[in-house]
């Protein structure tokens, strides 16, 4: 029998040949938001992995929305043009579907890259800038106090998401994932720990959901129905009194009613006070809950590293798609190895067919090689 991991799945209008998604992974290797040679090498390599979906890293919709000064952006036509040859190269050599994660970092912006420590860069320092957020609450004690967004600021950021979405469609991408997780701006609006506003965007759950839902509505309306639009969320802050799974289910239902095609379910990232019980598959139960309560396709993620582990999650109905990030960096041929272990088949470019092990004669499907 064929495995579920290598069976097709549909995320709204997006049809995937298998259920392996490469989750967004920031590379901190852009210049003024523009992709570099690193992105061609990195994304090109992942595109040959055999996964069904590649989601491009968190891509800022405004300059101040970058996590670090070296983050990728899509806030201008120049950024769109710079991404064109990378997308074209992927299309020439791989059938993988490609989406992009559109993001705004809010109060977690203006940070050093991880290998330089990842610390907050104050606005008066070189490469630093003034951050914005729902409320004037820093991410951690001693860090930059963000400016609370007024209505004009909210409109500017909402418009930034819309324009970036239109550029993503113009690039011929297959989907958009809105970043509402990991303590970034949309998540900051959702959590009562970071949102203490007293207007229509703060207080009650309905009010805290308002801006993220407005962004979703605006993006959904900006691109054709044949382009999938989903949302990544943190299902819980892992902090008492913060955002948690019950609120996440309510939010997911609101998104479903608005035409959301999938939910990518993660957790944490909002507060340094978080206490995360890290273990293999530790976030999968949240994807399972949202899938069960809404019927929406979910992407499960979080220390999923083994092929049988991924297969079991799918067989048990806990998620519809398996999201892999660090596991893919460590083993860029993870889908090949998973297909071999599960007795299934996977895409490989013809240039690599000769690598097929003798004991897996059908791993890459029907192949034919001749040589003089």
Structural overview:
It is a single chain. The chain is an alpha/beta fold. Helix content is 32%, strand content 14%. The chain contains 10 helices and 12 strands. The strands form 3 sheets. The protein has an 8-stranded parallel beta barrel with strand order 3-4-5-8-9-10-11-12, surrounded by 6 helices. Strands 1-2 form a two-stranded antiparallel ribbon. A two-stranded parallel ribbon has the order 6-7. A hairpin with a 2-residue loop joins strand 1 and strand 2. It is globular, with a radius of gyration of 20 Å. The two termini are 37 Å apart. The model has no long low-confidence stretch (mean pLDDT 97).
Task: Note the main attributes of this structure.
single chain; 8-stranded parallel barrel; 10 helices
Helix content: 25-40%
Total strands: the figure is 12
Bin the strand percentage. Answer: 5-15%
- How far is the N terminus from the C terminus? 37 Å
Encode the helix/strand succession as letters: EEEHEHEEEHEHHEHEHEHEHH
Mean pLDDT: 97
* Shape, principal axes of CA atoms: globular
Tell me the structural class.
Answer: alpha/beta
The number of distinct helices, counting runs of at least 4 residues, comes to 10
Uncertain ranges: none
Largest sheet composition: 8 strands, parallel, barrel
Strand order of the largest sheet: 3-4-5-8-9-10-11-12
Radius of gyration: 20 Å
Topology of this protein?
Layout: E1 9-11, E2 14-16, E3 20-22, H1 37-47, E4 53-60, H2 77-93, E5 97-103, E6 132-133, E7 147-148, H3 151-170, E8 175-180, H4 185-190, H5 205-222, E9 228-234, H6 245-257, E10 263-266, H7 284-294, E11 298-300, H8 307-315, E12 321-324, H9 326-330, H10 334-342
Parallel strand pairs: 3-4, 3-12, 4-5, 5-8, 6-7, 8-9, 9-10, 10-11, 11-12
Antiparallel strand pairs: 1-2
């Amino acid at each position: 029998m064929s495995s579920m991991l290598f069976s097709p799945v549909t995320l709204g209008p997006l049809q995937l040949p298998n259920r392996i998604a490469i989750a967004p992974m920031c590379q901190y290797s852009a210049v003024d938001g523009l992709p570099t040679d690193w992105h061609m090498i990195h994304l090109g390599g992942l595109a040959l992995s055999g996964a069904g979906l590649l989601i491009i890293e968190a891509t800022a919709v405004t300059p101040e929305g970058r996590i670090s000064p070296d983050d990728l952006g899509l806030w201008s036509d120049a950024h769109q043009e710079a991404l064109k040859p990378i997308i074209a190269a992927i299309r020439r050599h791989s059938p993988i579907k490609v989406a992009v994660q559109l993001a705004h970092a809010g109060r977690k912006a203006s940070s050093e890259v991880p290998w330089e420590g990842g610390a907050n860069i104050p606005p008066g320092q070189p490469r630093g800038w003034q951050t914005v957020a729902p409320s004037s609450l820093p991410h951690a004690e001693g860090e930059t106090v963000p400016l609370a967004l007024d209505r004009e600021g909210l409109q500017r950021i909402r418009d930034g998401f819309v324009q970036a979405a239109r550029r993503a469609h113009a690039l011929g991408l297959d989907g958009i994932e809105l970043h509402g997780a990991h303590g970034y701006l949309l998540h900051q609006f959702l959590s009562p720990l970071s949102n203490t506003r007293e207007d229509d965007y703060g207080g009650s759950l309905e009010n805290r959901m308002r801006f993220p839902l407005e962004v979703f509505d605006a993006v959904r309306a900006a691109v054709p129905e044949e382009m999938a639009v989903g949302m990544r969320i943190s299902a819980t802050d892992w902090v008492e009194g913060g955002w948690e799974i019950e609120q996440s289910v309510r939010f997911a239902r609101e998104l479903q009613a608005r035409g959301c095609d999938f939910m990518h379910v993660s957790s944490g990232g909002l507060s340094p006070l978080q206490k995360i019980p890290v273990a293999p598959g530790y976030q999968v139960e949240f994807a399972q809950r949202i899938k069960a309560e809404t019927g929406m396709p979910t992407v499960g993620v979080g220390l999923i590293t083994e092929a049988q582990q991924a297969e079991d999650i799918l067989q048990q109905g806990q998620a519809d798609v398996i999201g892999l990030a660090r596991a893919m960096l460590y083993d860029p041929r993870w889908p090949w190895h998973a297909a071999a272990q599960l007795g299934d088949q996977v895409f490989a470019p013809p240039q690599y067919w000769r690598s097929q092990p003798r004991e897996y004669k059908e791993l890459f499907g029907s192949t034919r090689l001749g040589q003089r």
